[in-house]
Amino acid sequence: MGSKSVHALLEDIRLLGTRQFELVEAVRQQVHDAFPEATEAVKYGGILFTTETSFCGVFAYKAHVSVEFSRGALIEDEWGHLEGGGKFRRHLKLKQLADLETWRLADYLPLAHRAAMDED
Predict the structure, then answer these.
(1) How far, in Å, CA of 120 to CA of 47, rounded?
(2) Model-level pTM greater than 0.70?
(3) What domains, with CATH codes, occur in the chain?
């Protein structure tokens, strides 16, 4: 785990803004609903979620919250919502709670997990 605890990072995010805090908490809930065994660790300024391997993370910014998928480039993106053009990562940008449904986070989570597991 990084030098900062998840709780301490959440307090910092709360100071950044109520909207960002609510979005991060909603993402955490969806991840834990899909993968109750997932652990959380602070890394790279966000919260990384891991089962047998890290598969996604949530990062709060001033204008949005980003859900990053470690091996998102391997996801067959049938809905076309993933952003990014790097070698591995892809992300969803969330600006309001409704975006969790609009951008289908619950549908992407198992795909992101499978993609990360296939690479190990």
Answers:
(1) 21
(2) yes
(3) 6-119 (3.90.1150.200)
Residue type, 1: M
SS (H, E, C) the chain: CCCCCHHHHHHHHHHHCHHHHHHHHHHHHHHHHHCCCCEEEEECCEEEEECCCEEEEEEECCCCEEEEECCHHHCCCCCCCCECCCCCCEEEEECCCCHHHHCCHHHHHHHHHHHHHHHC
pLDDT digits (tens, 9 = 90+) for 42-94: 999 999 999 999 999 999 999 999 999 999 999 999 999 999 998 999 999 99
